[in-house]
Amino acid sequence: MINNLSLKNSLVLTAGLVLVFFIGYMDHISESSVDVSVLYMIPVALTVWFSDRKYAFTVSFIAVAVWEFEEVFFKLDSEFTALVWANIILRLAYFLLAVIVLSKLKGEYDKEKKLADTDSLTGALNRRSFSVLIQKALAENKKKSMPYSIIYFDIDNFKMLNDSRGHAFGDLVLKNTADIITKRLSEKGFLSRLGGDEFAVFLMGSGPAEALKTINGIKGDLAAEEHALKGVTYSFGVLTVQKKIILNTEELIRLADKLMYSVKKTGKNAFKLKKI
Questions:
Q1: What's the rounded Cα separation, in Å, for the pair 229 and 231?
Q2: Which residues pair with 195 in a beta bridge?
Q3: Cα(52)–Cα(99) distance, rounded to whole angstroms?
Q4: Contact status, residue 22 vs residue 76, Cβ threshold 8 Å
Q5: Residue 193 forms beta bridges with which residues?
Q6: C-alpha closest to that of 47 among 36, 58, 38
Q7: Could you tell me where the DSSP H helices lie in the chain?
Q8: CB neighbours of 226 closer than 8 A, spacing ≥ 6?
Q9: Per-residue pLDDT averaged across 162-167, rounded?
Q10: pTM score
Q11: N or C: the chain end with fewer CB closer than 10 Å?
């Protein structure tokens, strides 16, 4: 994921710089007296929106340099006057201020988007966004036909825990559970809080062996937590799909839920895995 992010930032930066030089070239060959500041703002704004502030600062410095180079060397007979230096400072301030404002707007947008896609308590995906991501992954998987797995689980006796220890403690258990599992999954899958104490994990490219390794890792991580989760147990249903079967998110959840409840009936604090 980190490598993908670095690649994305590099591509956005490259595209921004190419656009800056293209605008400078078009400004030069057109010999237009029209103010091109708005045009130079386009690559700066795009870099802020699709990358981050530090890359936008780089594009801003280059934009000012190209803009001034074109004016000084092709329009002002190569004279670096006090007016030229004042223009450089003002234009740079103009771009940098725009970067700061746009990055704050982008931050607010990202925050609102995250709130719309995630559970506010645990930070896990909500049911709607979980469903969207699964359907997208399955659509992309039609040609590859990779196996995939879904893990459905809840906290054993959570209502009793909530009633005896209080809702604040129950919330802490839910949050710690989500944090630990998210850390375990890394980029291998994604976690959703479906509601109450019910969670689900989707693992693309995960056959029975990989799913078994993941579930054992999750169980081990949860059991190793010595504070809020001490003494807390979980029941898991693990469904692995290897055949070319078309299932939607709700069908996957229903089948994994059925496996989880069969664990509940036989004593809880365990998991059941099924391959189809």
A1: 6
A2: 198
A3: 9
A4: no
A5: 199
A6: 58
A7: 2-30, 37-50, 53-74, 82-117, 127-140, 158-165, 167-185, 208-224, 249-265
A8: none
A9: 87
A10: 0.65
A11: N
Rounded Cα distance, 259 and 276, in Å: 13
Question: How many Cβ atoms from other residues are within 10 Å of residue 151's Cβ?
Answer: 27
pLDDT band at 2; cut points 50, 70, 90: very low
Burial of 242 per CB tally in 10 Å (0-12, 13-18, 19+): middle
The catalytic residue positions are 197
**Residue 87 and residue 93: Cα distance in Å, rounded?**
10
Q: Domains in the chain, start-ordered, CATH in brackets? A: 2-117 (no CATH), 127-275 (3.30.70.270)
Lowest mean pLDDT among 21-25, 35-39, 66-70: 35-39
- Comparing C-alpha atoms, which of 122, 123, 105 is closest to residue 114? 123
pLDDT tens digits, one per residue of 78-134: 566 777 778 788 888 888 888 888 888 887 777 777 667 788 889 899 988 898 888
DSSP structure class, residue 51: S
